[in-house]
Amino acid sequence: MSTANRPPRVLAIAGSDPSGGAGIQADLKSIAAFQGYGMAAITTLTAQNTHGVTAVHAPPADFLTAQLTALDADITIDAVKIGMLHSVDIIMAVEAWLARVAPPVVVLDPVMVATSGDRLLDASAEDALVHLAQRAHLVTPNLDELAVMVREPVATTWSTAREQGRRLAELLDTTILVKGGHLVGAAAPDAIVTPHAVIDVPGQRVTTRNTHGTGCSLSSAIATLRASGLSWPDALAEVKAWMADALTASSLLQVGSGHGPIDHAHRMRSTGEWARGAWVDCASLVTRITELPFVSGLGTGSLDGDAFRRYLAQDVHYLEGYAEVLAAIAESAPDPTTRAFWLASCEAAQAEINRLHAQVLGDADETPAAVTVEYLSHLRRAVESGSYARAVSAVLPCYTLYSDLGVRWRAVSRDNHPYASWLDLYGEAAFVRTAAQAERLASVAADSVDRAERLLMSAAYRTSMHFEWRFFAETPLMPA
Ligand SMILES: Nc1ncnc2c1ncn2[C@@H]1O[C@H](COP(=O)(O)OP(=O)(O)OP(=O)(O)O)[C@@H](O)[C@H]1O
Ligand SMILES: Cc1ncc(COP(=O)(O)O)c(N)n1
């Protein structure tokens, strides 16, 4: 299912919301936010704004079939997200198409009623929608839709919602994403529920009225990440973190005076920019790193065990200095939240040192290699410059490179892989999130300095990336 470096081709089958917050407009923005290629087959046209829906026009169902047929005749579809379907005719057209094409990822958001309270599905079409839901790999009802689908009163507690999700999973024999967005309280929990298990993905409620389109955006983003190779729970955790920021950033948009839209583009708009640019500038160096025999051998598992051990012995030396540098960065961090992030990273590095000593290296104490010494001197010089921004830039490749390698290694089979646990460490969603957060903090730092200092940040980043290349190239060749 993984699409490696090719963006997944994701089709939204949904209604149009001309105000851009929900429907296919939200789907296309969300798919793009997660780096997919978005397509849209339109089921219905609505006239709506942030206060509500004033009219609905549904073209004949045959015309939807014509759109879908034109697409599958030409384009391989990696994932489908289904939203507003409005009527039995449209549901049947989609069901017939799904039966014929069988896309590998199908996410159904069983849209029934808008945030504004307006009906988006004929009441007589509810049974047909439940029937269609059996063809989906993931169904994402809100609490009201969940209640309709299991024919029970609307859940008012999270435990009832989870139980209803379990019953719906059994009824449809598929996976359900139960959404707690409509509950009251400080938490906004969600869960991935199968007939056999419930995996909670916790979240904090963002205080805002701008929740128009959250369900549409969530389902299309998850379809995109699933087609990129993430599991449902990992995809949900990623999207929830993004959603929380999109809800927070929504206040800047000032779109309408009712329930406004979330800010799908918040990551493009703010932070991320300097760090992404620095990463792109190092693209050819990163390619050279991925092509090193040590790195490709790690991925395939063919790497010589002694070479890996020599690399780890140097890694421990590196991590000891790196942890000190992270502690110094935390000291000079501009605010308590940022400071807490760098301290947590420092603790993670120390935990990794202890793990390596306990599980792999014992008391063996190789001398530090030239590259280890030089790389650490470079990091310390960045700290000693007194510039927080430059110090952060210098440590950043250690996050971005390993996160990138981890994602590449996700697709590798773990069967009898000698380095499986090491590959897992960097491929897991938590590490990818940590790396993304480090990038955001570096970009925030870049926004606060002048152009000359930003150039020094870029130089520090590139030098570190070069040391990463040398580290992978030289340490496995150290004398035993
Ligand atoms: N105020 C909030 N703070 C944090 N997360 C929220 C908030 N409101 C909704 N969410 C999250 O947004 C996603 C959509 O949930 P929700 O229950 O609102 O679905 P929905 O009702 O189908 O959405 P829609 O508003 O599009 O109809 C879920 O992941 C939910 O946890
Ligand atoms: C075309 C279309 N599709 C879906 C929704 C539901 O979104 P919300 O519940 O946030 O209004 C909508 N309002 N319009």
Offer a concise description of the structure.
The chain is of the alpha/beta class and 480 residues long. Helix content is 57%, strand content 10%. It has a 9-stranded mixed β-sheet with strand order 3-2-1-4-5-6-7-8-9, with helices on both faces.
CATH class of the largest domain: Alpha Beta
Q: How big a fraction of the residues is strand?
A: 5-15%
Determine the N-to-C terminus distance.
41 Å
Ligands bound to this protein structure: adenosine-5'-triphosphate, (4-amino-2-methylpyrimidin-5-yl)methyl dihydrogen phosphate
Structural class: alpha/beta
Can you give a write-up of this model?
- The chain has 480 residues and is α/β, with parallel strands linked by helices.
- The chain folds into two domains: 9-265, Ribokinase (UDP-N-acetylmuramoyl-L-alanine:D-glutamate ligase, 3-Layer(aba) Sandwich); 273-477, Heme oxygenase-like (Heme Oxygenase, Chain A, Up-down Bundle), CATH 1.20.910.10.
- 57% of the residues lie in helices and 10% in strands.
- It contains 19 helices and nine strands.
- It has helices at residues 23-33, 61-72, 88-101, 126-133, 143-150, 158-172, 214-227, 232-249, 266-269, 273-281, 283-291, 293-300, 305-331, 336-361, 370-384, 388-410, 420-427, 429-447, 451-474, and strands at 9-16, 37-48, 53-57, 79-82, 106-108, 138-139, 175-179, 190-193, 198-201.
- A nine-stranded mixed beta sheet has the order 3-2-1-4-5-6-7-8-9, with helices on both faces.
- Helix 4 (126-133) links the parallel strand 5 (106-108) and strand 6.
- Helix 10 (273-281) packs across helix 18 (429-447), helix 15 crosses helix 16 and helix 15 packs antiparallel against helix 19 (451-474).
- It is elongated.
- The mean pLDDT is 91.
- (4-amino-2-methylpyrimidin-5-yl)methyl dihydrogen phosphate binds at residues 14-17, 22-23, 46, 83-84, 111, 114-115, 120, 212-213, 215-216.
- Keywords: ATP-binding, Kinase, Nucleotide-binding, Thiamine biosynthesis, Transferase.
- One of its GO terms (cellular component) is cytosol.
